[in-house]
Amino acid sequence: MSEASFYEAIGGHETFERLVAVFYAGVAGDEPLRALYPEEDLGPAADRLRMFLEQYWGGPTTYSQQRGHPRLRMRHVPYAVTPDMRDRWLLHMMDAVDAIGLDPQHDATLRDYLTRAAYSLVNAME
């Protein structure tokens, strides 16, 4: 019997849906960070993030089927991701991780990945 993927172990689609919903609720109220999102409706951005995270953690490969290789750094080049924007992003994302209430091991694994990813996307200084 194979071991469950991280995606399955933390509750699958519903967990990622909640994570992303809480995250984007924070983004919507953060004027400087919100300015990095060109679309008036945050729904499409939320869908892309959810699909990316689901795929990364062993869920459906819908992201790549619809959008190709993630190429995170390349996709973020048009936006000035400063250390301040990174920290704002992490604040809302960590609040979202708090909201989904994972067990300590899964919580630490997710936080580590999200923190490393956020730091890797900084492409401009203040």
From TrEMBL:
UniProt entry tagged with the keyword Protein biosynthesis: no
InterPro entries, alphabetized: GlbO/GLB3-like, Globin-like_sf, Globin/Proto, Hemoglobin_trunc
Matching Gene3D superfamilies: Globins
Alphabetized UniProt keyword annotations: Heme, Iron, Metal-binding, Transport
Entry-linked CDD domains: TrHb2_Mt-trHbO-like_O
Highest taxon of the lineage: Bacteria
A Pfam family this chain is assigned to: Bac_globin
Family (UniProt): Belongs to the truncated hemoglobin family. Group II subfamily.
Protein name: Globin
Source organism: Nostocoides veronense
